[in-house]
Design goal:
The structure holds two protein chains of two kinds.
Chain A: H1 2-6, H2 8-40, H3 71-104, H4 109-123, H5 127-139, E1 148-150, E2 154-157, E3 160-163, E4 165-166, H6 170-194, H7 198-221, E5 230-231, E6 234-236, E7 239-241, E8 244-246, H8 248-274, H9 278-286, H10 291-321, H11 333-344, H12 347-376
Chain B: H1 16-24, H2 28-54, H3 75-86, H4 94-110, H5 119-138, H6 154-180, H7 185-199, H8 203-217, H9 226-251, H10 255-263, H11 268-298, H12 310-317, H13 327-360
Classes of the chains: A alpha+beta, B mainly alpha.
C-alpha cells in the first residue's frame, strides 16, 4: 500500500486530478450562481434578443442605420466602427513610426534628438489622456459658420471634418476594395506559378491597366441615379449638408492612436534598422549602389524581416487600445456592447460577443502578419544575426 | 626568451570638436539639417517657455486677466489642485493623503535599490509601505477617522491601484509562470490557457467584467467592494503579462543549472527559489520593469468604469463655472504628472538594461 502512495507517478496524477476537480467545481459554482441571479432578475438567456429592435441612438456609423434596427445590426456597426478606427489609427501610426524610426537612426545628432523627444513625449503619457486632450482640442474648433475651409471643398469645424464624396452605392466600394485585395494576393501566386517568365510581366502590366478601368465601370453602374457625381458639403443654415463627415470623436481618437502608436512603432522600426549588419550596407557601397538603393533594397527589406513579429504585437496592442473610444463617446464595439448591456440586460451573451469580436480581430491580424512573415523569412538556411 | 608582453593600443583619441563636427556638420547637407533642427528646437523651446512661464497667469485670483494673456492660465491649477490631487477626500484630512502618497512613492523608489532585491526584503518593504498607505488613507486606527474607499480620489487613488495591482499581481505572475512551465501536462495546459485568455483581451473588457459582471457570477460573500473587484481583475491581467516575461527569463537559463541543483539533491521549491527565479529575474528585469511602466499608464483606464482617479478628478477640476475654458492647462498638468512617473521608471529600466548587459559581456 505504502509503495503506491509514495510513488512519484501516483502523486503526480493525484495532484493533477485534484487541481482539475477544483477548477471544475469553481466553474460549476459560477454557472449555478449566474443562473440563480439571472432567475432572480427574471431574465431570459440566449441570443434571441439579437432580433429585437434597439430603440436607442449612438454617435457614429459607417452604414446607414435607424434606431429601430435590431441588436445584431447595431453590434455589427460597432464592430465595423472599431475596424475603421483601428485601420485608420494603425495605418497612420505605421507611417509616423517609419518616419520617426528613420529620424532616430540619423547620423545627425540634433536631428535624431528630434525623434527622441517625440518618442519620449508621446510614449510616456497615457493614451486615454491623449485621446481626451485631442477631443477637447478638436471639439473646440470654430463653429460651422466660421469653419476653416480648403478651397470650399473640405471644411474643418467643431462639428467635424467634412469632405466631398462620390455618389455611389456602398456595396460597389466594398467590391472595389475586395477586387484590389484579391489582385494583390493573386500576383505573388501567379509569379510563383509562371516562374518569373516574360508572360507574367505582360499579364501584370495588363492587370494594372485593366483594374482601374473595371473600377470606374463598377462605380458608374452603382452611382445613385439623378445626382451629381460628386456630393459636395455646403453650409446650409447652422450646419453642413452633403459630403462625408468625420466626426470629432473619430478624428480625436485617430490622432491620439496615430501619435501614440507612432512612438511605439518608431522604436520597433529603429531597432529593426539598427539590427541590419553593417557589412551588408558596406557591401552595397562596394558594389556601387546609390544611397537610396542601399536603403530601399538592403536596409529596409532586412529591417522589415527583423521587426515583423514585434510589429504584429504592436498592431494587436493598438487594436485593443481602440476600446478607449468610449471615453469620448465614439460608438465602437465596446461602447455599443456596454450600452446594449445597460438597455437589454443580456449581460453574459453580449460579453461573449465582445470577447469573440476582439479574438476574431486579433487572430486575423496575427494570421495576416504571420503569413507575410512566412513569405519573407529566410528560406533554406539560417543566417546568424 | 623574448618578451611576450603585448602592447595594447588605445583607440585613436577624437577631440570633442572633431566629434561634434562628425555628428553635426559632416556634409553640407548635414550642416543645413543641423541649422534647421536648431532653429526648430529654439522655436519650440521659446514657444513653450513663453506659454508656460513668461506670458502665463499664476494665481487663482488673477483669473480675469487670463482673457488677455497669451500664455497659460495656471490659475485653474492654483484654485483646483486639491481636487486633482485628492478628489473627494475630506478637506481637513488632505495631509493624510499627501503623506500616504509620499510613503508609497518612497517604497517604489526604495525597491529600485539593489540592496532590497531579495524576496524577504522586497516583500517586507512592500507590505510595510502598503500597510502604512492603507492605514493613512482608510483610518480607523491611531485615532484617525475612517474614510471609506468611495471617497478616495485623485493621485492617491491612482497610486493605490498601481500599488495594489503590483502587490497582488507579482506573486501571482510567478505562480502562473511556474505553472505554465510545469512538467505535469494538465497543469501546464490549464495555466497556459488562463494566461493566453487574459492576454488576448483588452484591459477595459476585463475591468468592465470585474465591475459589472462578477456580481452575477460570484456568491454574495465573495464579491467585495467594486474597487477591489476591479483591482483584482487588473491584477490578473497584469500577472498574465508579467508571467510571460518571467517565463522568458526562465527559459533563458541553461538546463545545466537546474540539473546541478537536482544532482545536489535540492527539492523543487529550493531549486525554484534559489536557482531558477533569481536568474530568471536577472534575465528579464528590463521587461519586468517595462510592464510596471505600462501598468502605471494603464491605471488611467479605471476612469471608464467609474473611479475618480487623477484623470477623472482632473476633468472635474475644470468642469464648473469659469474654469471650463482652461481644459488645456489641466490636461497638460496631469500629463506632466504621468510623464514624471512614467519617464523616470522607464529611464530606470533603460539604466538597468545597460548595467546588466555589462555583466553578460
Amino acid at each position: 500500500m505504502g509503495s503506491i502512495l509514495g510513488s512519484q507517478k501516483f502523486r503526480e496524477i493525484f495532484f493533477q486530478a485534484l487541481v482539475l476537480s477544483v477548477v471544475a467545481a469553481l466553474l460549476v459554482t459560477m454557472v449555478m450562481n449566474t443562473r440563480a441571479s439571472l432567475e432572480a432578475q427574471s431574465l431570459t438567456t440566449g441570443f434571441g434578443f439579437l432580433e429585437r429592435a434597439t430603440g436607442w441612438d449612438f454617435s457614429f456609423s459607417v452604414l446607414p442605420y435607424s434606431i429601430s434596427d435590431p441588436y445584431k445590426k447595431t453590434i455589427l456597426i460597432g464592430f465595423l466602427n472599431t475596424l475603421l478606427l483601428g485601420f485608420l489609427g494603425i495605418s497612420l501610426a505605421t507611417i509616423i513610426g517609419i518616419v520617426i524610426g528613420l529620424i532616430r537612426t540619423s547620423k545627425n545628432a540634433l536631428f535624431s534628438l528630434l525623434g527622441t523627444v517625440y518618442v519620449e513625449i508621446f510614449r510616456n503619457v497615457p493614451l486615454i489622456l491623449q485621446g481626451i486632450f485631442w477631443y477637447a482640442i478638436v471639439s473646440h474648433l470654430p463653429r460651422p459658420k466660421a469653419a476653416l475651409s480648403l478651397g470650399d471643398t473640405v471644411f474643418l469645424s467643431g462639428r467635424g471634418l467634412y469632405f466631398p464624396v462620390l455618389n455611389i452605392a456602398l456595396w460597389s466600394v466594398a467590391l472595389m476594395i475586395l477586387l484590389f485585395v484579391a489582385w494583390l494576393f493573386f500576383l505573388p501566386w501567379l509569379r510563383e506559378r509562371m516562374n518569373h517568365s516574360t508572360n507574367y510581366h505582360v499579364i501584370k502590366r495588363i492587370g494594372w491597366i485593366l483594374l482601374p478601368v473595371i473600377m470606374v465601370v463598377i462605380g458608374y453602374l452603382a452611382r445613385t441615379p439623378d445626382t451629381p457625381l460628386l456630393n459636395m458639403p455646403a453650409l446650409k443654415g447652422l450646419n453642413f449638408r452633403g459630403g462625408m463627415r468625420m466626426p470629432p470623436e473619430l478624428s480625436a481618437l485617430v490622432i491620439a492612436i496615430a501619435l501614440y502608436g507612432g512612438a511605439y512603432i518608431g522604436e520597433v522600426v529603429r531597432s529593426g534598422l539598427m539590427s541590419v549588419p553593417k557589412g551588408q550596407i558596406e557591401a552595397g557601397f562596394v558594389n556601387g549602389l546609390k544611397p537610396r538603393h542601399i536603403f530601399s533594397r538592403i536596409r529596409l527589406p532586412l529591417a522589415i524581416r527583423a521587426v515583423l513579429p514585434s510589429l504584429t504585437n504592436q498592431y494587436v496592442q493598438l487594436m485593443k487600445a481602440t476600446t478607449i473610444g468610449i471615453v469620448v463617446g465614439f460608438s465602437d464595439l465596446f461602447m455599443i456592447i456596454s450600452t446594449s448591456i445597460n438597455q437589454s440586460g443580456q449581460t453574459l451573451e453580449l460579453l461573449a460577443i465582445l470577447m469573440g469580436g476582439f479574438l476574431l480581430i486579433n487572430l486575423s491580424i496575427a494570421f495576416v502578419m504571420n503569413s507575410i512573415n512566412k513569405k519573407i523569412a529566410l528560406k533554406g538556411y539560417e543566417v546568424k544575426s | 626568451m623574448t618578451n611576450t608582453k603585448t602592447t595594447y593600443q588605445l583607440p585613436p583619441q577624437i577631440s570633442f570638436s572633431q566629434r561634434l563636427k562628425n555628428s553635426l556638420f559632416a556634409t553640407p547637407f548635414d550642416f543645413v539639417l543641423t541649422l534647421i533642427c536648431a532653429a526648430l528646437f529654439a522655436l519650440l523651446i521659446y514657444w513653450f517657455i513663453d506659454w508656460a512661464f513668461l506670458s502665463s497667469i499664476w494665481r487663482a485670483e488673477d483669473e480675469p486677466l487670463c482673457k488677455e494673456a497669451s500664455g497659460a492660465c495656471w490659475s485653474v491649477i492654483d484654485a483646483r489642485h486639491r481636487i486633482i490631487f485628492f478628489g473627494l477626500f475630506p478637506f481637513e484630512e488632505h495631509w493624510r493623503s499627501t503623506l500616504a502618497c509620499a510613503v508609497m512613492i518612497a517604497t517604489i523608489v526604495a525597491s529600485c535599490v539593489p540592496w532590497f532585491w531579495t524576496a524577504i526584503r522586497l516583500s517586507a518593504l512592500w507590505l510595510i509601505g502598503f500597510s502604512i498607505f492603507y492605514i493613512l488613507m482608510h483610518g480607523g486606527l491611531f485615532g484617525l477617522s475612517v474614510i471609506t474607499p468611495e471617497r478616495w480620489g485623485g493621485l492617491a487613488l491612482t497610486i493605490f491601484i498601481f500599488a495594489a495591482v503590483s502587490i497582488i499581481g507579482m506573486p501571482l505572475s510567478i505562480l502562473l509562470a511556474l505553472g505554465r512551465r510545469s512538467k505535469l501536462p494538465v497543469i501546464a495546459k490549464l495555466f497556459g490557457l488562463f494566461i493566453d485568455f487574459f492576454r488576448s483581451l483588452p484591459l477595459l473588457t476585463i475591468l468592465f467584467t470585474a465591475a459589472v459582471i462578477t456580481p452575477f457570477v460570484l456568491p454574495g460573500w465573495l464579491q467585495g467592494d467594486k474597487l477591489y473587484r476591479v483591482i483584482f481583475g487588473f491584477a490578473l491581467f497584469f500577472a498574465a503579462y508579467q508571467a510571460e516575461n518571467i517565463r522568458a527569463g526562465l527559459q533563458a537559463i541553461p538546463p545545466g543549472q537546474d540539473e546541478a541543483g537536482l544532482t545536489l539533491g535540492l527539492k523543487y521549491w529550493h531549486r525554484v527559489a534559489r536557482i531558477q527565479l533569481p536568474q530568471a529575474f536577472r534575465n528579464s528585469l528590463p521587461a519586468i520593469v517595462n510592464q510596471f511602466v505600462i501598468t502605471f499608464k494603464e491605471t488611467s483606464i479605471v476612469t471608464i468604469v467609474g473611479f475618480f482617479e487623477i484623470l477623472a478628478s482632473g476633468s472635474a477640476a475644470f468642469g464648473t463655472g469659469k474654469w471650463t475654458v482652461h481644459y488645456i492647462e489641466v490636461y497638460v498638468f496631469i500629463g506632466a504628472i504621468y510623464f514624471i512617473f512614467v519617464f523616470s521608471l522607464s529611464r530606470y529600466g533603460a539604466y538597468l538594461e545597460r548595467k546588466l548587459r555589462v555583466g553578460h559581456g
